[in-house]
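User: I'm preparing a small set of examples for a lab meeting where we compare how different chains pack in three dimensions. I only have the primary sequence for this one, and I'd like the structure in token form so I can line it up with the others. Please keep the answer compact; I'll paste it straight into my notes.
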Amino acid sequence: MFMGEYTHNIDRKGRLIMPAKFREELGERVYITRGMDGCLTVYPLQEWTNLYAKYSSLPSTNPDARMFMRFFMAKATEVEVDAQGRILIPANLMKGAALEKECYIIGIANRVEIWSKDRWLTLQEEMLPSYEKFAENLTPFLE
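Assistant: Understood. Below is the structure token output for the 143-residue chain.
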């Protein structure tokens, strides 16, 4: 299970150190793609496999499903976690997520999100007042 908030810097080669607490669960290879709300999402192999099976069953006759799959899968890439616990983030993903140097790495239960410093701090500032309302809206899903 992934949880917590960490800050790390992307080096000039586009490598980012994953938090030590995440490394064992992430494994040697991870899948990284465009996330929601302007971040990148990193999945360990098992989680990616589960997601891929679910998404592959979406009806290709549904225009929303087709568009979602295009955007989700087109940016997806498999990357290796090196001996120092770093992943190489492809330039196109870095650009799309506005990643420059300092990043926030957030554990979200079954996945990891990578945020640009500015986007993460802005999101927190804008959304924190709604935190309790979000929880209220999710109650039916948790029962």
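A couple of notes for your slides: The helical segments are 20-26, 45-56, 63-74, 91-96, 117-127, 131-142. The longest helix spans residues 45-56.

User: Perfect, thanks.
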